[in-house]
Amino acid sequence: MREVNFDGLVGPTHNYAGLAHGNVASMRHGGLESNPKEAALQGLAKMKALKDSGFAQGVLPPQQRPDIGALRDLGFSGSNAQVLERAALDAPQLLRAVCSASSMWTANAATVTPSLDAADSRVHFTPANLQSSFHRFLEPRTTARVLAAIFRDETRFAHHPALPATPAFSDEGAANHTRLAATHGEAGVHLFVYGRQAFGGDNDRKEPVRYPARQTLEASQAIARQHGLNDAQAVFAQQHPEAIDAGVFHNDVIAVGNGPVLLYHEMAFLEEERTLEELRSKMAAPLIPVRVPLEAMSLEDAVSSYLFNSQLLSDSDGSGAMTLVVPGECQENEAVWRTIQDLLLGGNNPIGEVVVKDVKQSMRNGGGPACLRLRVVLSEDERSGLSGRVLLDDGLYGDLIAWVEKHYRDRLTPEDLADPQLAEETLTALDELTQILAIGNVYPFQLG
Predict the structure, then answer these.
(1) Phi, psi of 189, deg, nearest 5
(2) pLDDT tens digits for range 149-179
(3) In this predicted model, what pLDDT tens digit does every residue of 323-353 receive, in sequence order?
(4) Is the Cβ–Cβ distance between 368 and 330 less than 8 Å?
(5) Domains of the chain
(6) Which of 3, 38, 139, 172 is catalytic?
(7) 19 Cβ neighbours under 8 A, 6+ residues apart
(8) 172 catalytic per annotation
(9) Quick count: other Cβ atoms within 10 Å of Cβ 147?
(10) Which entry of 250, 266, 330, 382 is annotated as an active-site residue?
(11) Catalytic-residue membership of 250
């Protein structure tokens, strides 16, 4: 059993629209000029570096953007060029939303349960409904088609519908889900983190007041039921409201786990001790908590550096050692870098190496290394049963680099989003990409 990180390719319309309320970096950089080509190349460079280090690496395609069909559903009519022009004049924020390249953050794409933990011995997928924001609500249908095209064999893989797109079942995917186990090849316990309770909640229960809590307890419970997880396999924990109000819009901005290790900030969970004790009681192996206290790192530093949005990876040599892949912003923050050196590398835990990667284009839009990947634990047989050409090797990497160099712009402003030529360029690029990845027709324009 190996964990495969499926990274999302950054789309050709990568732009800074500041669409995500509660995502401090996204709001701060809204309206600035972006560089889609650099963003895609940075993401591919990270994938290649991890592949070369022995980690299993996969690729997921971006969404079709601009989503002109969504604009038509909202009353805009005429040719594609006319729809874009009218939206730019009458509703520029809608135009920015339907051009969002946010699907690059595949940690939000779905929640995944490995076959080892499922009663039917299949890998289970549920696309996130992402109903808390319009620009992300547009993603689940295409996400479901992409996952079904890659994980096609019904004897190995099970696909569930996205939860009802209502506030009560607001689901943000694997960004609020962590599987903990001794190794990837042993049965795991699933930690689901939620921000609020929709039904029958405790009136005295604390909730954020500045920014919205996106994930609900009810959504997390429904995912667990869909995947057949029993009470002994799942732990549900509330995210700390003060962390959400500080800009921790998903749990993966304040905690990251892998194997038996849970790296987290003191302010990650509302009931820290209860959460740890329940994990300890349900895990077959000893939990290794790595706690970063508030006195060592403020919530502001945690959010600005995205230390906890790093990738925590089990080294492929079977030693139990782990590598932490952090964004360059961690190295630029004195308190964060000191914490990495003294508490993480210098502490009694399996983290033996820290690798710094430049993903600035993604970071400015509010997503770090961990946002860019969907973790899927697969057996050798399941990996051999994947459809398409989605596991990264040198040949695929070279083809994707050439594809980006051919199709992507190196400068994009909010005003450029109304350019009908950009829409045409994107469709041409995506059509070619589905051929490179050999996943068939997954986009609306390909389906007719």
Answers:
(1) -115, 135
(2) 999 999 999 999 999 999 999 999 999 999 9
(3) 999 999 999 999 999 999 999 999 999 999 9
(4) no
(5) 2-65+100-447 (3.75.10.20)
(6) 172
(7) 26, 30, 93, 96, 97, 100, 102, 133, 135
(8) yes
(9) 23
(10) 250
(11) yes
